[in-house]
Task: inverse folding
């Protein structure tokens, strides 16, 4: 199967669902990891142009841990707007390029504007990608893919409808996250958070709920036209 995971910034996917992606990749599925924004403003001292290059390299290194494809849509942090047709077309073309059976992205009530905008744009794009008169560089998709929302940061306002046991993939997840060294520093300085410990703790919490050591939680978007019988092939 083809899996498309879309986060707002480099490191968002690693924080919320990298264990599941590692498990999917190990099972032989093809994964495209996309960050919509460049991550160009997430630092106190490194200017945006320099930080863009750093974060691109970090994202590629993280994806290389599990051998997945990593792409970026190139939006500036804080500059992505859901109600914009040009932005929608970029996401439509992404969906057509990846040809996903399953798409994973931010929940609609996540904590910051870029995450919420990406959630809305992915929802729009996964449907409109099937309409041939929206012209992009890739042909129209054959069907609307299944859509899953990954956990909100710290799990606030998020009630998983199912869990993936990622106990055997925690160290891989943390290895992927550790590639984002600029953000480990930024989150410590800006938010007072040790994000590695943060991720491990939330994984244990979801594991307690799921009846295993470490888990990741998801909500399936259940609406008509979605192939709702599809479940994570893990």
Result:
């Amino acid at each position: 199967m083809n899996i498309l995971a879309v986060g707002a910034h480099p490191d968002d996917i690693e924080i919320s669902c990298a264990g599941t992606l590692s498990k999917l990749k190990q099972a032989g599925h093809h994964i495209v990891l996309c960050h919509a924004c460049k991550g160009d403003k997430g630092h106190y001292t490194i200017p945006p142009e320099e930080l863009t290059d750093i974060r691109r390299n970090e994202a590629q290194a993280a994806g290389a841990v599990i051998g997945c494809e990593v792409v970026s849509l190139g939006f500036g942090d804080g500059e992505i707007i859901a109600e914009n047709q040009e932005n929608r077309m970029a996401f439509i073309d992404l969906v057509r390029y990846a040809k996903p059976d399953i798409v994973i992205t931010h929940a609609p009530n996540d904590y910051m504007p870029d995450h919420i905008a990406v959630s809305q744009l992915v929802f729009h794009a996964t449907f409109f990608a099937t309409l041939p008169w929206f012209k992009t560089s890739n042909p129209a998709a054959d069907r609307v893919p299944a859509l899953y929302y990954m956990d909100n940061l710290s799990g606030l306002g998020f009630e998983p409808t199912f869990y993936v046991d990622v106990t055997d993939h925690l160290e891989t997840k943390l290895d992927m996250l550790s590639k984002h060294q600029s953000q480990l520093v930024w989150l410590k300085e800006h938010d007072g958070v040790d994000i590695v410990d943060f991720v491990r703790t939330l994984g244990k919490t979801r594991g307690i709920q799921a009846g295993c050591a470490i888990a990741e939680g998801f909500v399936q978007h259940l609406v008509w036209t979605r192939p709702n019988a599809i479940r994570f092939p893990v």
Notes: The chain has a mean pLDDT of 95. The beta strands are 2-7, 30-37, 69-75, 102-105, 146-150, 162-165, 215-220. The first strand starts at residue 2 and ends at 7.
